[in-house]
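We now fix the convention by which a protein and its fold are recorded. The integers have meaning only within a learned vocabulary of local backbone shapes. A complete example follows; check for yourself that the lines match position by position.
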Amino acid sequence: MEQIEVGDIFIVTDENDQEQELEVLGTMDVEGSVYVAVGFVEEIAKDTTGDVDIFFLKVEEDGELSEIETDEEFNKVSAAFETMVDKEQ
């Protein structure tokens, strides 16, 4: 898999075998691991002024994406993303 960049769109299959398009909203390095913040393309297109659900995925060494497995890891990534957004505003 190529390097993931902000604006990239990819398709995932959910637990109901429905395909969903996700857009990369941000990338960040947290304690030596790379993570991406993603949101549903359909939701982003509809609601450009309100809150959009954001999900974090870990980029594995082979470039594949995986779910964050622990609350501790999620909290670290979430805090890093909030800090990144605050710096951009």
